[in-house]
Amino acid sequence: MKRVFFVIVSILSSVWFISCSSSEETVSIPVAERYMNAKALFDDGDYLEAIEEFKVITVQSQGSEFGDDAQFYLAECRFIRGEYILASAEYDNLVRLMPGSPFVTIARYKRAESYYQLSPKPQLDQKYSRFALDNFQTYIEFSPTDSLVTDAEKKIEELTLKLARKMFEGGKLYFRLEYYKASIAYFDKLIQEYHDSPFVDDGMLWKAKSQNERKDFAGATGTLNELLSKYPETDLMEEIMELKLEIVEDKKEYEEDQAKRQLSITE
């Protein structure tokens, strides 16, 4: 029994010694040397090894002259590897924790770019598209004269169009499902939040269709009149005129039906 105990103690002591030796080795390398090694790994495309070295610097020597460099290249490693969620978090750490760094401007842009890379097709959930849009706008607000602003503006336009399409298609889906109140809510949100998008006149037309289905004939007519006032050159003119006639016919039919119901009640 004593022999077994002695063996266990020897093993644990060896493990402790190795762990301490490794820890001492990690600490003992000067930060400048560690950074140069990490940057060499990065330049050689050995991003996994570089990540580990940059992480040591960001944890142990964040306040050193190499702290923000290590944080930026740690984020870059994540980005290049396609680990966009982790990359966005690392860029965010730099922006928040090292506001005086010369890397802050590019980090704001790359944070937005990370979310942009995660932005899916319009049919799917657009959480990351909204994150990208917000972060590109933040980048432009802080750095309006930066060289990447033009690229950011193009991507904002692209993302806005994608979000508007998502909203429009969502409204049409609810219309097909005959959830007309929900479809009106979607089209209203489209009109209010994406008023510069090419989907607004279509959205107003479909809103009027939804209102007509809900027997809100005055509302449907008012929406079409507003559509014609705001977009007199719309290419939906034929559909608008057809819907106007349909509203008149549906209203007449509805009122006749209501009159018959009232007559049957009184009799």
Describe the 3D structure.
With 267 residues, this protein is an all-alpha fold. The protein has 12 helices and no strands. Helix 7 (127-142) packs antiparallel against helix 8, helix 8 packs antiparallel against helix 9 (180-193) and helix 8 (149-176) runs parallel beside helix 10. The model is unreliable at 1-26 (pLDDT under 50).
Keywords:
12 helices; single chain; 267 residues; elongated
Approximately how much helix is present in the residues?
Answer: over 70%
Outline: elongated
Q: What's the order of the H and E elements?
A: HHHHHHHHHHHH
Give start-end ranges of low-pLDDT stretches.
1-26
Can you count the helices?
Answer: 12
Write the layout of secondary structure elements.
Elements (H helix, E strand, L loop, with lengths): L1 H27 L2 H13 L3 H14 L6 H14 L3 H14 L6 H15 L8 H16 L6 H28 L3 H14 L6 H14 L3 H14 L6 H30 L1
How would you summarize this macromolecular structure in one to three sentences?
The protein is mainly α.
